Amino acid sequence: MDNKVTSFKVLKTPLENVKDNALLIGFFEGQTGLNADLKKLDKEFNGIISSYIKENRFRAEKGEAKSIFTNKGIKNVVLVGLGEEEKYNFEILSSVMADAAKKLRNGETETFSICLSSFSGHSKEEDAVEKIVLSCLMGLYKFTEYKTKDKDKIKNVKEITLITNSNKNFSSEINYAYAVSYAVNKTRDFVNTPPNIATPGHIAEYVKDVSKKSNLKCTIFDDKQIEKMKMGCFFAVGKGSVNKPRLIVLEYFGAGKSQKPIALVGKGVTFDSGGLNLKPYPYILNMKDDKGGAIASIHVIEACAKLKLPVNLVVITPFCENMIDADSYRPDDVLTAYNGMTVEIKNTDAEGRLVLADALTYACEMKPQAIIDIATLTGASMITLGNVATPYLATDGKLSEKIKSASIKSLEKVWEMPLWPEFEDSIKSDVADIKNISEEGDAGVIIGATFLKNFVDETPWAHIDIGTTVWSKADKGILTKGATGATVRLLMEMLREWK
Ligand code: BES
Ligand code: ZN
Ligand code: ZN
Q: Which of 16, 307, 327, 491 has its CA 20 to 30 A from that of 175?
């Protein structure tokens, strides 16, 4: 993330008085007339805006952007197409806004203004503000940490002004959007960071620092402690790497001490080579993203503390590296998990569920009101929902509803998969209590969750599989190529509304 974060300001002023490098105005398809405010602006520009619309030079199709350059106070009036009015929603707003911000940034525009009322549609302006700020800050994200050449040529938007007729300063919405986009972008930074740098030890040092600054309780267990605690599954996965594992536990108390915490458990595999079941090329590429769930959870708790959300939260993140060594765990090994169950290894590449198994048992010991784990658990998530949505599974209807409703509000699409008992048979082992894969290989997402279910007690639990959505190949709308910060917006929305 570039250190120079774009700042936002709110200005109550007639459009014709705006002085800036650019002004974004949203239009719906077929919108022929201009409202009173736009009419004045149009007059100032000798009718050029209305002529673009009348002469069909701008049709307001979704995503269309037409620049009209002037020598007045606004140097570039950008007409932004929002598509059909009846279909307009916050998803379209976010994507159109992020694309427009990127386009201006790439054209070296350092500051621009947005005509707020033209983008809020039929929604409250304050809700639109939150989405506008979030989508600009997410869309403008760039990971440039490891570029050494032409650093000074990296372009950045310094300030965005929201032009409004209202007397509101939208400070709480801007504040929320700032905290959430910081969490998303920091998550992207760490997930994008190469595995030779972002080792469990390196991440532990960073988290220590975060916890000090945000006043979070932080407990870190090293490899010796993990072994001594008898976290046999987690320890075995980390054994084959010189970069020793760490179990990082963060706690935030935003509600009374009597309120049970909500537990987030995140898979933190800093690189997944597959172990002795080595991943072949090209599947081994990008396996630095296997820490996405843990990194998201850490930035979610940091954001909750910043926003002083009235919840108690605990984040449990097992970090390790799945590597090959004389000491690596192997197929056919039988491991004893932290909860005492025995697990037969059939594939060392199904390591995420082993790491999470012990972390989930640890979470149960903290007697939380609910547990949610976030993990890049399976490649099968791609077959399930493609890169459009994230599959999740839950043992509790209320918890599932919370996730669903947060999904709608946060615009992070999730879809529930079933946890039917029929799936349990395929992970029964001949020699141990269970085995870590189903040898048939079907229903990968559900089998992963079915395995994990053995390590949670009666506590309501949900498992979110971000195997696919952790990463984006596209640079479109709020997405940029690389890590996405998946589940940060979803979890923040859920925790903000938690009852
Ligand atoms: N980290 C991977 C899952 C993954 C794969 C995430 C591709 C993102 C992209 C996980 O540890 C894994 O290797 N899972 C195996 C499980 C299988 C052996 C049952 C998989 O999905 O192939
Ligand atoms: Zn794996
Ligand atoms: Zn993995």
A: 16
Question: Which residues in the chain come in under a pLDDT of 70?
Answer: 1-3
Give me the pLDDT at residue 3, please: 54
Say whether both 185 and 120 belong to one domain: no
1 in a structural domain: no
Return the CATH number at 118.
Answer: 3.40.220.10
How much is the pLDDT for 49?
94
246: left (phi over 0), alpha (psi -120 to 50) or beta: beta
CA distance 496 to 409: 11
* pTM over 0.90, yes/no: yes
Whether residue 235 sits in one domain with residue 320: yes
Neighbours of ion ligand 3 (CB under 5 A): 269, 272, 290, 352
Question: Do both 419 and 309 map to the same domain?
Answer: yes
Segments of 137-261 assigned E as strands: 159-164, 217-221, 246-253
Rounded CA separation 499/493 (Å): 12
**In the chain, what percentage of residues exceed pLDDT 90?**
96
Name the residue range of residue 344's domain: 178-496
Angstrom distance (rounded) from CA 270 to CA 420: 31
Give me the active site residues, please.
279, 353
**For the domain that residue 201 is a member of, what is the CATH number?**
3.40.630.10
What is the Cα–Cα distance from 64 to 67, expressed in whole angstroms?
10
Please check whether residue 92 is in contact with residue 81, taking contact to mean a CB–CB distance below 8 angstroms: no
